Prior knowledge:
This protein has one domain (3-65). It is 78% helix and 0% strand. It has four helices and no strands. Helix 1 packs parallel to helix 4 (56-65). The chain starts with a helix and ends with a helix.
Amino acid sequence: ENELEMFYGEYCxxxxxxxxEYQKILAENSKFREYLLDIExxxxxxxxxxxxxxxxxxxxxxxxxxx
Length: 67
């Protein structure tokens, strides 16, 4: 591996770790669960899969809404 590949490997690994840690924080947040239930009750065209695949920036905005 050259240095660039090593950098990107480490960067992507950290990004994925951060993403999944943030998913866990959101999943344990009662207000976030209420937010999901509201989406479901209102038949909003957003699936849980769509939410989980949103970029971290968008997830952090949702996290801000829920705190």
